[in-house]
Design a protein that fits this description.
The chain is of the alpha/beta class. The protein has three domains: 2-50 and 93-113, no CATH class; 127-188, no CATH class; 192-364, Rossmann fold (3-Layer(aba) Sandwich). It contains eleven helices and twelve strands. The protein has helices at residues 2-22, 24-28, 31-35, 102-113, 147-161, 207-227, 247-252, 261-275, 295-310, 331-338, 356-364, and strands at residues 41-46, 81-82, 85-86, 96-101, 127-137, 180-189, 192-200, 232-238, 242-245, 281-289, 316-322, 345-350.
Length: 368
Amino acid sequence: MALNIESDYGRFRRIVRGKIRENLRKYMTHGELIGKKGKDVVSIPLPQIEIPRFRFSPKQQGGVGQGDGEEGSPLAPGEGEAGGHKAGNAPGQHILEVEMKIEELAEILGEELQLPRIQPKGKHKIESLRARYTSISRTGPETLRHFKRTYREALKRQIASGSYDWEFPVIIPVKEDVRYRSGRPQKLLMSNAVIFYIMDVSGSMGDEQKEIVRIESFWIDAWLRVHYPGLETRYIVHDAEAHEVNREQFFTIRESGGTMISSAYKLLREIVAREYSPEEWNVYGFQFSDGENWGDEDNSLCISLLKDDILPHLNLFCYGQVSSHYGDGDYIKVIESGLPGFDNVALSRIENKDAIYDSIREFLGKGK
């Protein structure tokens, strides 16, 4: 019975994964999904999945109870009329909410967008405790059940007891046969990474643009955490000056001054040099802006900073230009013309929420 339940549950999870893949673009554009994020899981509504239930064919029913029934006979609850309002007996549409781990959701993202696996570089200097399963135990959680060893134990028991049927070889494990993977935490040196999110918070970047950045950063985080369990995030905002802020401030702060992108690059350079040696850290930068910058002089300074001080230390630098109601600037063209031949640079134009899907593919498709 337990094996049948596990088999059914596994089939159900495969159906869920398929439904999520079919509607992934829709989920990626809705901020409600991010709002349901817990510590490790996300609750996802799936109205397309129909829950199995028994139904009786009307051809095999002769009315209520036995026979055709008579006029005025009481009906079963939910049938007929009550209080002048008709109450139907057909089932309504059910919205099933399933919980899924962020890691599994990220794997679906990678499969659907055909993202290459990231190859981390270097080793982080801090050791991490992780369980390594090197032995077998008679007790343990069901998540660590070792199915091959359980099957082997059941086979040995049935052969030894003479209950094994060689013509009809059916193996039925009992409680004493079940085996579990077992181990103890070990210190492992893990590759680690840090993401720097950089955003222009001048007056032209409104709430709609920041919502796009918020949604896209959620999916970027999810994918990178598959490869880096100890992922760190840092947030830099700028107008004419740059400041490091926390996540909440990053998506809510708004300034009204001018825009000098070089100020953010200088702060990024300072933090990386002080805290994140590229020999030990995998460093990622994701910058979002509407493309407006303070003149050609600062554009030239930005290209110089990227070439000499930033790109040599980053696995990947991504620039996303988010369309604004005030019009788009030309900074994306400045990077295109100023940084030819850099394979760790990715650019994306994000016109609206529907463009997030393709933007993530453009950013993470290099597998850096």
